[in-house]
Amino acid sequence: MSSQKLKSITKWAFPAMAVIVVVMAIVFRGIWWQPLSHWVAGTVQGQHSTNGEQTDSSDEQHQDGQPHDESVSLDLSEKAMLNLGLTNEYLKPLQLETFRKTISVPAIIQERPGRTRIKVSTPLTGIISHVHAVTGEAVLPGSLLFEIRLTHEDLVETQTEFVQTLGELDVEQRELKRLEGVASSGAVAGKVVLERQYARDKLTALLNAQKESLKLHGLSDEQIADLAKNRSLLKSLKIFAPSVDGHPEDEFKFSDRGVQKISYEEPEQVPLILETLHVLKGQSVVAGETLCEMVDYQELYIEGRAFERDARAVTESMQQQWTASAMFESQTGFEIVENLPFAYIANQVNADSRTLSFFVRLPNTIVRDESNSGDQRFITWRYRPGQRLQLLVPVEEWQDQFVLPVDAVTQEGAEYFVFQQNGDHFDRVPVHVKHKDQRSVVIANDGALFPGDVVARRGAHQMQMALKNKSGGGVDPHAGHSH
Prior knowledge:
The protein is an alpha+beta fold. Helix content is 30%, strand content 35%.
């Protein structure tokens, strides 16, 4: 390598290394900045003590040798921390995270049209001979619901004609077999045998047409084969609970046997609730009449109603593929359900309320599942149509923010404070609050706090009152607490 190239490499190597060192120092400032600032403060304090300068009597030493101001430091006993709820869950190191600013819109839980509610009807006329489920009961798809004694004249007549045709076909086939045996000896003319073959073919065609007619009445191939084998008319109709995603022929069974359940090819069956029962035992029903209404609350919709000024923000949030959060009132405050995907936005503004409806998918869970002595099952879903709530829709996203629960911050005048754990005590640290809502506060990443600092995530208002009481000042029970 020539000396000129070596000089050129040496010329640029040192500036490049310097730039890399500066960048690495900025990236990892959360690791070295706080220990360095404490070391500098300790060094300065030590120099003041060496030169004979008197420090304030309220300034003492931390367990790690670092000075702190007792007026903004609070010692908490183990019981006091438990009283404030400062468990490990609420004493976590800070970390930078993404925060989404939200707007709150009124909302209500709705059924999913065409999916939540299912009507069960009878395809034929008859009399209800048995009701196997009661109002409010939870049944799995494929469970037997009703038995109907058939009085449908058309079905009875079609079955009768089918059985009669079967008999005639049997007679014709036996006669044809006999004639074919004697025709070979010349005792019977071949024309007679041919006429019998034509008659058999006509009966076969008629029988096929009657099979298709029975299928239109709801009979399956297996049931028609059973009818042909036993030659006895089907007198009862069994109706089973339908499947939400499929409606096979087996939902209606014509049988006099004790079939109690049919199966569906589903990985996990969700129970349906028989919400409304429209018939009683002994009641006569006609073809197409509704027997009951069943509901599936496994998944519901939340209908948000945004005012015109918020409609654009909701549309942009959906385009960004962000998720919404549902806020329910509870005995302890609010229950938040997060990560709810948008379903769709209505294309028409309500003329009366001047609001735009949009829909969010809400998965549901069962909170109660019990069976009584009669083996009847009853379940209770957590969320129900008609419940009112607030829907939080994200409208803006901020990267690399300190996000804390709202109870982690206390206010005094124009100042906001958090309490940082430092050894066996908590130091009050002034912070800049960039945003505050009902649940969260966003703290500016301006050097007051660093990633890895442990901050009390609840009880800041009570700790502020204890600190003021410790300093001898009057305690304002409403300080730092908004109503």
